[in-house]
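Researcher: Quick test of sequence recovery. C-alpha cells follow.
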C-alpha cells in the first residue's frame, strides 16, 4: 500500500501535465460506465482530492458522471477502481479517503427513504474511513495499516468484486 500523500496518477493529467478545469471535466466524458470513462472520471477526482488546499468533489459533478446520485453501478465500479489503485500503490490513502468521503456525501445527498446503500461501495468507504483515526489514546497504532489495508485486500480478493 502507498505511503504518505504522494499521488501517482500516470497520464491522467491533460494538456501536458496541467490540471483539468471544471468545464473540461464536465465536457471530457459522457455519462457511461465503461472502464475507460470511469478511469477518466477517477483521474479528475484524484486531481481534485489531492489538490492543496483540499477541494471537495461537488455532488453536481458526481451526478453528471453517474447520471443520477443513486446510480449504484457507478458508485460500486468507481469504489472498486479506487481500491485497486490504492492496493497497487497508484493512489495514496489520503487521496482515496478524500474521494470516498466525497462520493459518500454525494450519495447521501441523493438518498431517498428505503434506498439500499450500494455494496461494495459502502464497504470500501468504511475501509478508508477506518484509517482516519487512532484507537489507543496514545496513538501508538497505525490506523491505515491496521484497519484499512487488510480490509481493502480482503474486499479485492473476492471473485465477485474483481474488475480485471
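Model:
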Amino acid at each position: 500500500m502507498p505511503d504518505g500523500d504522494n499521488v501517482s496518477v500516470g497520464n491522467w493529467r491533460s494538456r501536458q501535465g496541467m490540471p483539468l478545469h471544471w468545464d473540461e471535466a464536465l465536457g471530457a466524458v459522457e455519462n457511461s460506465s465503461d472502464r475507460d470513462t470511469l478511469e477518466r472520471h477517477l483521474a479528475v477526482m484524484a486531481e481534485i482530492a489531492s489538490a492543496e488546499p483540499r477541494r471537495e468533489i461537488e455532488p453536481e459533478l458526481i451526478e453528471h458522471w453517474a447520471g443520477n446520485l443513486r446510480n449504484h453501478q457507478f458508485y460500486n465500479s468507481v469504489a472498486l477502481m479506487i481500491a485497486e489503485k490504492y492496493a497497487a500503490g497508484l493512489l495514496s490513502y489520503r487521496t482515496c479517503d478524500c474521494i470516498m468521503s466525497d462520493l459518500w456525501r454525494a450519495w447521501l445527498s441523493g438518498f431517498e427513504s428505503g434506498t439500499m446503500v450500494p455494496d461494495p461501495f459502502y464497504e470500501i468507504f468504511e475501509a478508508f474511513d477506518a484509517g482516519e483515526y487512532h484507537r489507543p489514546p496514545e496513538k501508538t497504532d497505525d490506523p491505515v495499516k491496521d484497519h484499512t489495508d487488510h480490509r481493502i485486500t480482503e474486499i479485492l480478493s473476492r471473485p465477485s468484486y474483481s474488475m480485471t
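The helical segments are 22-28, 35-49, 59-66, 72-87, 93-109, 121-130, 143-156.
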